[in-house]
Design brief:
Elements (H helix, E strand, L loop, with lengths): L15 H33 L6 H15 L7 H19 L7 H4 L2 H24 L4 H14 L1 H11 L3 H21 L11 H11 L3 H8 L4 H15 L2 H11 L13 H4 L6 H14 L5 H24 L3 H4 L3 H25 L4
């Protein structure tokens, strides 16, 4: 997602006023596409009680569709790149203010440890499946993180630190999102065949459904208990986003990024940690310590969501849909197989921990 940043290098950027003029057309276009996506989601919500396809997903799909039938002019490229990278990083940072770390303790140590283990095993198995099917390394990482943590948000957060190709980001988000909708619709039908209680089903939803809004859509219709525990478990999964992104930030540093000497390694490590991830963890800590008022959580989460929608629209506008079809089938198979593994692991965790 850094290709467009070359158009206006940070080192030689024009004065702030001139740079705003350069960025404005692209940012405005991405914002307009995002607003349209949210409007469509609002219509879905009015007709069906909840969006069938989230605004975030609609934004990137709409952006890709526009890009496929109409090549944006050069004058909007800088703003599109800015929205797809810097705006997205701010959105991820703000997400930390809505994460409540003490939820990990309230969920119980055994369940919390089980969730962490599930995320690790999910990422590893999904990655191996992707590689076995011939997916590139970075695309396999994106699919694995999207499946195992929090869908689009995880993909969007991991992509900058591994320097993923725009086509890989878009394809992984698109197909993961499509399957995520199918999971929301189909998961409740597994409750009785698997002999799950309302509480157990909530845990299953929290462990397998990709996005928090999708967890609500999949769990609350079953019961209030299912919705509450599903949301709790899902939030514990989301807590893994920071450590996972930090891991990949360290793992994917280039030789040029490496410290010049062993003595300098201790101090140079901060350059390998993206600023927005440091901010994410800092805000999460402040939120848990009570330094961020509870009244700020909802507005901050809403702002983060809006910025993410605009960023995803920008990402879509920078990708030609025709390029994605080249990797479509392997991605679909990888995401589907990874989800099946995640379901099996989740059911095994529920029974191993004797969750009732």
């Amino acid at each position: 997602m850094t290709a467009s940043s070359a158009t206006v290098p940070v080192e030689s950027a024009p004065p702030s006023g001139a740079r705003l003029a350069v960025l404005f057309p692209g940012v405005a276009l991405a914002t307009a596409v995002g607003v349209i996506a949210l409007a469509i989601a609002a219509v879905e919500d009015r007709l069906f009680g909840h969006p069938i396809v989230e605004g975030l997903v609609l934004a990137i799909l709409l952006g890709m569709t526009i890009r496929t039938v109409w090549a944006p002019p050069v004058r909007v490229e800088a703003g599109i790149g800015f929205a797809a990278k810097e705006v997205l990083e701010v959105a991820v940072l703000l997400l930390g203010a809505s994460v409540d770390l003490p939820l990990l303790r309230r969920a119980g140590p055994s369940l919390a440890i089980g969730i962490v283990l599930l995320v690790v095993l999910g990422i590893a198995s999904s990655y191996l499946i992707g590689r076995a099917l011939g997916l590139p390394h970075k695309l396999s990482v994106l699919v694995a993180c999207g499946n195992s943590i929090c869908g689009n948000s995880a993909i969007a957060a991991v992509a900058p630190v591994i320097r993923a190709e725009k086509e890989h980001v878009a394809s992984s988000i698109a197909f993961t999102a499509i399957l995520g909708v199918a999971v929301v619709i189909g998961l409740p039908f597994l409750m009785h065949p698997l002999g799950l209680s309302n509480y157990q089903y909530g845990v299953l939803a929290g462990l397998t459904v990709y996005a928090v809004p999708q967890v609500l859509a999949a769990a609350f219709p079953v019961s209030i208990v299912s919705g509450q525990i599903g949301t709790l478990v899902k939030l514990v999964r989301v807590l893994m986003l920071g450590p996972v992104v930090l891991f990949f930030a360290l793992k994917h540093r280039t030789d040029a990024d490496a410290p010049a000497s062993v003595e300098g390694a201790r101090f140079a490590i901060t350059k390998f940690v993206p600023w927005f991830i440091i901010g994410f963890l800092a805000l999460a800590g402040l939120r848990s310590a009570g330094a961020i008022p509870a009244a700020w959580v909802t507005p901050t989460r809403s702002l983060s969501s809006l910025l993410t929608v605009a960023a995803m629209a920008a990402l879509g506008l920078g990708v030609d849909l025709k390029a994605i079809t080249k990797v479509g089938r392997p991605v679909i198979i990888t995401v589907t197989a990874s989800l099946a593994v995640l379901l099996v692991l989740s059911v095994a965790l529920i029974h191993t921990l004797s969750i009732r």
